[in-house]
Amino acid sequence: MNPTTSAVELTERDMALLRGLFEARVMTLQHAAVFHFNGSVEAATKRVQKLKAADIVAERPRRVYEPSVLFLTKKAFQLLSERGVLAGYPKIGWSNIEKRARVSPFTLRHELDVLDVRAAFWKALSSSDVFEITEFSTWPLLSQFRSAPRPGARDTLCRPDGFIRIGEREADGSRSEHSLFLEVDRSTEPQATLAAKAACYGSFYRNGGFAVRNGAPRSAVREFPFRVLFTCRNAERRNNAIERMLCNRPPTLTQVWLTTMDELIADPMGAIWVQPIDYRTALEGTEFDLADRGDEELRPVYRRRPEREAIVEARLNKRALLRE
């Protein structure tokens, strides 16, 4: 028997929506349509109206031109707890849930950007016969880890914006899996911070931290590879981030894949991704060649360099994330 309330009988899809809101903390009506209503905004609107009337889902105050942003009510949280839906999550009380939903406008924009990325992947892979999203977590607490950006440095707490597992059906019928961490940049952090994040991911892999997280010994590090996806607001920001990542010791060359937000929203599975090594190769033999430049020269005071951007876009070999 489906769980019920005095006003509405909840379906399995309703419960999936509530669980999604618990993990994501906020979600627009458009996101809900993509994740739970086969892309139908009309169907999502009708059902959410009933859930709102039953005090199961609430909506943040908004201006007329702003999207409808949904969050869980206390009634919904209690229902999820009673039904054991939250058994696999860290224990958290209602006061903390309420704080997570009532985020600042700045944090809200970032959270919605993360969900835009998730929605883009969801739509791109929903009809694939080869690839399937088996996990897409956007709650940093579930994927956080501690790692040092360089040997001898202190461990820092790294809180990814997302963690993705994509299953792939091989030609022989077997299955493989791709593990991806997500970092959504809104151009508010210093480039050095982005480079340090990339370095921490590298250490997390090399010291076997990810292998241990997957239940294996640290010595099994090569059996548990992963990639880190960075989305940037524009190509200039992406290129500046890459130059700082190339200054890491050891340099970040292939583990991190970067793109712009617009490119990802349009086609996350297309040839839109750049590895730092691709960027370095694109500049070889140009006035921006990085080969003979020292660390300090790679960290200039910020200035716009439109000539560099034009050269990079003309010569860059972009990659597709996965290929059928």
Task: Please describe the topology of this protein.
Layout: H1 12-24, E1 27-28, H2 29-36, H3 41-53, E2 57-59, E3 69-72, H4 74-82, H5 94-101, H6 105-125, E4 131-137, H7 140-143, E5 145-147, E6 156-158, E7 162-169, E8 175-184, H8 191-206, H9 209-213, E9 227-232, H10 235-245, E10 256-260, H11 261-266, E11 271-273, H12 276-282, H13 306-315, E12 319-320
Parallel strand pairs: 8-9, 9-10
Antiparallel strand pairs: 1-3, 2-3, 4-7, 5-6, 7-8, 11-12
Short précis:
The chain is of the alpha+beta class and 324 residues long. It has helices at 12-24, 29-36, 41-53, 74-82, 94-101, 105-125, 140-143, 191-206, 209-213, 235-245, 261-266, 276-282, 306-315, and strands at 27-28, 57-59, 69-72, 131-137, 145-147, 156-158, 162-169, 175-184, 227-232, 256-260, 271-273, 319-320.
Can you put this structure into words, describing what you see?
With 324 residues, this protein is α+β, with helices and mostly antiparallel strands. Helix content is 40%, strand content 17%. The protein is built from 13 helices and 12 strands. A 5-stranded mixed β-sheet has the order 4-7-8-9-10. Strands 1-3-2 form a 3-stranded antiparallel β-sheet. It has a two-stranded antiparallel ribbon with strand order 5-6. The protein is globular. The two termini are 41 Å apart. The mean pLDDT is 92.
